[in-house]
Amino acid sequence: MTILVRDVREHELDSVLALNNTAGPSILALDAPALHRLWSIADYFRVAEVDGLLAGFLIAMDRSADYDSPNFRWFRERYDAFLYVDRIVVATTRRGAGVGRVFYADVQSYAEVRVPMLTSEVFLDEGSDAALLFHGTFGYGEVGQQVMEGPGRRVSLLAKTLCSYEWVRETYGDELPDVPWLAGRRRPAGGASRATGT
């Protein structure tokens, strides 16, 4: 099985929305306008494709994003620079096949040349041990907890320091080499455009 990770295309947003809203209680539901808003502000919005079919997606944004999630705000109030993983969804038919691990390796590769930290959260509901273990095996640790406004659910707020960030900054400063794998996301027309990093 080959897993291809690439930037999402606008015509795929309906399929992404369907994946999101059938993911189960660990992912908050979205409507189409909310997903389009995420599409316009995300620094990282990629899908995984297996055998020509969407197998999942991951959305992340840096601290300068115009985003009002209470968990995102919690991190922004405490940290100067980070990439926040807002949501990762893997299709039920592909869970356990490594898609999530491929996403987390890819988002780390994206982030470590731009910011010193990756952040995320996990709902602390019954059955959250698998998600906490998954994040822990990638080096995330809990930096706080809060009860989310709205849904009233307790979350574990997680962060991971990206060790290579300092070396990249000392070696290249703000001028990364002009190579395709370092290119940032091409924003949709009218989408926010901002520099990442410190």
From TrEMBL:
Residues 3-163 form the N-acetyltransferase domain. Gene3D superfamilies: 3.40.630.30. InterPro entries: Acyl_CoA_acyltransferase, GNAT_dom, UCP028520. This is GNAT family N-acetyltransferase. It comes from Coralloluteibacterium thermophilum. The lineage of its organism: Bacteria, Pseudomonadati, Pseudomonadota, Gammaproteobacteria, Lysobacterales.
